[in-house]
Amino acid sequence: MQTALHILALVDELRREVTGGRVVSTEFYKKDRAAYIFVKGPNTRVALGFLYHPHGYGVFVIPASKVKIDTREKPWPIFALDGAAVTAVEQLVLDRLFTLTIGAGETEVKVVVEATGANGNLWLVDADGAVRGTLRKRDVNPGETYTPPEPFGGLDPFELTADDLIALADESPESSPIMLLQKNIVGFNRTLAIEAVHRAGIDREDRTPDSLGALARTVRDLANRFRSADSGYLHTVAGRPEVYPFKLASAGEPEEKFKSLSLAVYHMTTVRQTTTEQADEEKTVLSAVNRAIKRLERRIANVEGDLVQATDFERYKRLGELLQINFDSIKRGMESITVEDIFLDPHEAVTIKLDPAQSPSENVDEYFKKHRKGREGLELLQRRLEISRVELAELRRMHEELSQNFESARERYRIDIESLLPKEGAKDETAPRLPYREYTLSTGLTIFVGRDGSDNDRTTFEYAKPYEIWLHTQQCPGSHVVIKHPNKSFEPSKAEIAEAAAIAAWFSKARNDTMVPVIFTERRYVRKPRKAKPGLVTVEKEKSVMVAPTKPSGE
After folding, report:
1. φ and ψ of 459, to 5 deg
2. Which of 247, 315, 483, 516 could make an SS bond with 510 (beta carbons 3.0 to 4.6 A apart)?
3. 3-state SS of the chain: helix, strand, coil percent to 5?
4. What mean pLDDT is predicted for residues 262-268?
5. Stated pTM of the model
């Protein structure tokens, strides 16, 4: 954060750069929480920048050409100041407030800059102090008298004496010299307090009169360095970027030197925002992977529970065979029949439920149907469990690699990560627009279905891995479909390919046909001819399957 001493140095810069100049334009970017006043000064065109972004805030004056605004947002004008002359720049006592006096016709107005970090603001007031406008506080009444924030009631660092520090030490016997400076000297944050103690060559707990005298002299010297700031130094202090008009002897070599303190401040705000955005991205991605892991763990637990129940299907076959053996004893209208179970040793009596509305043969067939359905269900559950376990292992590996080296792993798992992040239409406005729809096969496999021509190309060539199965209706316009593989060695079953093919047929011009030929191959054998229309590809080593178009679950 800029202190009152930083603002003192900024005001000196502004006096040199904008006094006598004219306002060219004012721009406010609401989403970026940034405002700029562009001035054609005596030397060059400059920008007074005011940023109140929570992760990177600051006030600075830099050449207009240095301002990089990476947004499509149309800027709003701040105040109607275009063409007005800047006649004076003043700091309101030694505080984080300063004013630009601007001639507007025959009258003068002041732009008050509250450089108080993320809570800062810009005000337009007239010569009598009445508010004409404000950047952020919209409920203010025009004509209301501007009231500045309460100033910090500390000691002036330019006039600090040994007696002042001795008195403070007596009032706070538990405070170290660093805490005395941080809490009581205007413009001194913790970093400057540590720097003063370091330069004074005293122990951090030394409160003797001689040591406090040396400390007072060092404080005055450091404060005066802000008055003659001709460059800026960017340091990393406790993991965060901070800027000063001199090298911090207590923090090692600076990361970078700039031609002015303002340029260093501008760079610091960018670094802070970028660093925080990267940290936020890492947190978002890891949270998405964690959620996916939890979902898979729940799915596996549910499938394992279903498997326990599904293994009972063999009993239906035995009951059906017993009904066949005792077929002559079954009559329509019977609700059950008790027979001897010859498959047990010793034999036992068993009661078999019947549907009184069905014929004897229909009751027999019903038990064999249950057997077939149970067997197929068991195979499906076993396959679903197999796939889920492979996917879980891959997700856990992804999470581990992201945690160890996020930048490298993020690039390697880019496609997988994008599929896990919030989808378009979710509450997260930053969610990317993906070129495909995502569906799940009965075994739990995920498929991507391209949305249209150009999206088909992106789905195939950006989001499908070379070894994954690619499908498309044969000689018929339709969506590109990709079966996502849990890992490189995975092989989809014939049933999974047929199910994906049926969905590919559904998303084609042949949707209303009875049977549709669908080709499939590994994505590595799909090519995009030069200058081909969106969605048009050539295919090699393809196979085909005839399927009935089937609407995917969830569509």
Report:
1. -60, -45
2. 516
3. 40, 25, 35
4. 92
5. 0.57
